[in-house]
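Known limitations

Files may contain more than one protein. Parsers should not assume a single record per file. Below, a two-record file is shown to illustrate correct handling: read the sequence, read the token line, then continue until end of file.
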Amino acid sequence: YVVKNITADDNCFYRSLSFYYWETEKDYNEFRKLIVLYIENNIDIYISFISDEQIIAPNFNNYSESIKINKKREYLLDYTEIAKQNKVWAGYLEISTPSILFNVNLRLYI
């Protein structure tokens, strides 16, 4: 493997993917769009990544399972709206998605 310093501008996860696949950092936003779109289009898969504790709602533990799922879906849709923005760090959802999309194992060194 090769160690490459990536521009540290809060887009570094996407820049690293762009460099790995296209040998340039400049197309990082294409990877951001692709990853966030995949999460949005497969939101039901990602619901299991969201713990009950992440949802701030009064008496959430007393909700029926279907209402909990709907609340988690709403949370994820809000999350993806933020994730689409430039200079927003990739979270564990975005970091795990390329493994699915590109059938690769990723190692991150921070």
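...continuing to the second record:
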Amino acid sequence: SYTKIGNKVTVWVFVNLDAVVSFGTGNVIVATLPFASTSTSPYRSAISIGYAKNWAETPSGGTISNNTNVIYLRKRNSASALDSLVNIVQVGNMNATSEIILTATYMTDA
């Protein structure tokens, strides 16, 4: 679900995998957000993950690049909370029972 007030959008996402036949390869993304993020470069978006279960490498956060409607889930370089979220989580880190709950707030031009 989402709420849009002016040009600020907040989305709440719950993903619960069930009965997956096979996984592809590549980046784990949450696609088709309700609005594209702003094209203005100083604005960046961060994602807060409140819950994640059954991941080989658990996402620690995420990002939304400018002028896109996609969340990239990211992980830390190590177990240290001081490391930055530089690595994008790969599909191979998921399994048939992976779950995640996240919240994202971002700016839009719409």
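Parsers that stop after the first record will miss the second one. For reference, the second record is described as follows. The chain is about 0% helix and 40% strand.
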